[in-house]
Fold:
Amino acid sequence: MQVLVTGGAGYVGSHCAKALAAAGHVPVVYDNLATGNRWAVRYGPFEHGDITDLTRLTAVMDKHRIEAVMHFAALSDVGASTSDPLAYYAVNVVGTHRLLVAMRARGITRIVFSSTCAIYGMAGRSSALGEDTPALPISPYGQSKNTAERMIADSAVWGLGGVALRYFNAAGADEDGEIGEAHEPETHLIPLVLHAAAGLRPDIKIFGRDYPTRDGTCVRDYIHVADLAAAHVQALQRVEPGQFAAYNLGTGSGSSVLEVIDAVRRICGRPVVAIEAARRPGDPPELVADPARAHAALGFTASLTLDDMIESAWRFLVNHGNMDPRRA
Structure:
């Protein structure tokens, strides 16, 4: 199929474009490059455009005879969403609305949506989160993604088939070393710890040591970006017109902040200075996925480990000029 990949120059989008190409599809990347990287577009045509530009969206759909959509284009910094919520609603909600309008006008009835565990808000607890956990987002980012999900689900009335994939914590890099995580600024834990190991930053902050977890630090379910990409291709093959489904994507087990830092020290063979800091508002103690429904419906099982994530991300960091390879 000719698949429009909105936000396909970004971290997860670019890995999914590669997976689509490997499966025999043509990923048409649509990105405004505000946060994406042009060098990450390697597996199909590139079209520059904004997700809120309805005229441009429909023109690209016509030009490439688009048959399905993978929708990644979004603002995704939880903290930034609290200080500038309207920007998040403009891109994540209005942009999704424009995309759906364009799809309806062109008779495109398949979409796989990049969603998030942030829609669950503070629901994290000792047991893993299933898809029936109430959506109670506490940030404008989480609320904007939840609203986008509802728009996609409600569009079944005109025949749209949608799958929302609720990621937990994406990590790692392409096993071939071609693409990887390169945000500016970087906000994700694993690359930040790797930057500290590489000497690109002086330390890593641990936000809270008094959570009700096994070592007092927050626990998160990390999933390799290559596993995420595989899940998207599997979801695309199972989208049914007029039906909506949502699936959690995670491993079913969590790693604490301290465990991630220790794993980086062990794998990279480098010291990492860790500094305790105050809790951040809104950080749930634990967020771990129950991936059973994705396994049953999509045949998806995450196969790569935390060590795999760290090793692949470290290789990408070393090999792509973010640090002096002579020091690695």
About this structure: The chain has a mean pLDDT of 93. Residues 157 and 198 are 52 Å apart (CA to CA). The domain at 2-171+222-249 is CATH 3.40.50.720 (Rossmann fold).
